[in-house]
Amino acid sequence: MRRNWFITAVLVLLLTSCTGGTRESDDGTITLRFQSLAWQEESVEVNKELVREWNATHPDVKVEYVQGSWDSVHDQLLTSFEGGEAPDIIHDASDDLADFAYGGYLADLTDLLPERLKADIPRHSWETATFGDGIYGVPFLQEPRVLIANATWLKESGVRIPTPDRPWSWPEFRRITDALSGDGKYGVAWPLKEPVSATLNLSLSAGGQLFHRDADGKVTIRFQAGDQVVPRTIHDQANTDRSASPTTLGSGGSDTLPGFFGGRYAMVPLGFSYRQQIVQQAPKGFDWQVLPAPAGPDGLAQGVSPQTLSIAEESPHQQEAARFIDFLLRPKNMVRLALGDWMLPTGTQALKDPALHTAEHDWATGTALAGHLRPAPAQSVRGYPEWKDKVATPAFQEYYSGAIGLGELRERLEEDGNLVLARYQR
């Protein structure tokens, strides 16, 4: 019996020593686990290169690259946190951090990060990863939603080509897509398989806010005039003007590219990083260009949820992990990460790099929009994932398909939505 107890104790000790992100060897060398969600070939290679460069110059603190996936990151992280096996450095997106931050799974980075990094990233970007009084992620990559257009089609039509200095208004955008449509072709194809973030983020330009926080911190949903501009535009394009393809409303962004290349759609609203897929997949001679999304009373304002780097609260080597993040996000390295992901860096120094201001692949157009990016409306709302999945996604999908009207959309977003949020605010 005593022998069995001893064996059990040894096994428990061995299992305990193997859990968690950090490992420490007999000679004192620390190994930190960095879980990256890079998925494009260029991006994966840049991340691995930076890890190799760190390891070559930091013999006492090694970093192990761990490949993660955007498709399963939330559930995978939750399981690793609860099992005591979280990686030390965590790549995620700011709109996925709230529950982890409030749940105590992420370290507060306020006193861990160097002043250089804090000063280099604008305040509005830090707001995307700030929950309560703490900072729980470093926002480092972001992308505006833009219009990818068939340049030949637009040029031949004679429509005014928008620029960041002179964008289309939402009413003008609707008129132009109507004028471009006909004979089985559409002025725009909205890929809205995931309609909520696209709708809410674009609505900032029209003064949309949707989530309203009172003095006590309680959040309520109010679907007001500014919130209705973008969804009404999309609904009317699809159901009244017939200028938006009805078949793409349930599609992902990549699903629209064959039709775009085939001359079925004049424009597709997509994230800025989709340019890489277009460069790789477009037929030879296909001429395309990047246009800014339409503007409203608040100009080109647009919500974003930047990619972030966080540190697990359970990591015993948080300072070393913060040093690695600082290395990864030095201006030149941040530029390398941005180019690898075809996105924009948040850092002000990195944004000045000439490589991000070239006409090639319209980098300059995207960079001109960086100053207009703001925290996504739902950034710090607890219960947002449930509201999005159970209430908002089906409601927007039905509205865009014409199955319900604006009044019912408002009722479901507000009444059903506030019931969901209330459970998280008790």
Automatic annotation (TrEMBL):
It comes from the Bacteria. Pfam families: SBP_bac_1. InterPro entries: Bact_solute-bd_prot1 (IPR050490), SBP (IPR006059). PROSITE patterns: PROKAR_LIPOPROTEIN (PS51257). Residues 240-249 have a biased composition (Polar residues). Residues 232-254 are annotated as: Disordered. This is Putative Solute-binding transporter. It comes from Streptomyces viridochromogenes Tue57.
